[in-house]
Amino acid sequence: MGWIDFGLLMETSAGNNRFILHVCSREVLRPLRDQILRLAGFHVDSGLSHTDCLSMFEARRYDLVLIDVEGESGIYDAERLCSAIKTEKHDQFVAFVCNWRVAALTDCPDEIVRTEFDPKAFLEGVEGIFPRHEGI
Predict the structure, then answer these.
(1) Which residues contact 131 (CB under 8 A, 6 or more apart)?
(2) Residue 15: left if φ>0, alpha if ψ -120 to 50, beta else—which one?
(3) Where is pLDDT greater, at 48 or 102?
(4) Above pLDDT 90, what percent of the chain?
(5) Residue numbers of the domain that contains 71
(6) How far apart, in whole angstroms, are the C-alpha atoms of residue 62 and residue 53?
């Protein structure tokens, strides 16, 4: 993983006041990603468990639900959460954050952010979702 200039990140990112629910069970990675998104101007709620995040989703409107998929074994849980979210609010935009192998095995989310622990690629992937889908 390369170094990222957070000062430059703050100056060049969208900062568009969008609300993101970040679901990530990795205790070290979740706060890092949350901070990257916040520095870019996003409002972020996040949690470690799918159950807690589903409760957060039910309590607030989000522009994007971002679900981390850790390995192939996590696909099933991520797809269950995605399905529960889409059942409750069919037009909710959902994206998985995963590597290319996992991305090839799923069809539930609206979008996939493919990243291999690269903070810049992660942010670019998230920011790139919004211009492609103006309705979210």
Answers:
(1) none
(2) left
(3) 48
(4) 54
(5) 15-125
(6) 12
Please indicate, yes or no, whether the overall pTM of this predicted structure exceeds 0.85.
no
Sequence letter at residue 12: T
Question: Which CATH number goes with the domain that contains 19?
Answer: 3.40.50.2300
| Residue 131 falls inside a structural domain | no
Q: Residue 81, Cα to own-chain centre: how many angstroms?
A: 13
- How many degrees, rounded to 5, is the angle at CA 19 between CA 28 and CA 120? 50
110-123 mean pLDDT: 85
Q: Distance from CA of residue 91 to its chain's centroid?
A: 16
- pLDDT tens-digit profile of 7-37? 444 444 445 689 999 999 989 999 999 999 9
Q: Are 98 and 91 in contact (CB under 8 A)?
A: no
Question: In sequence order, which residues have a C-beta less than 8 Å from that of residue 74 and are 6 or more positions away?
Answer: 25, 68, 102
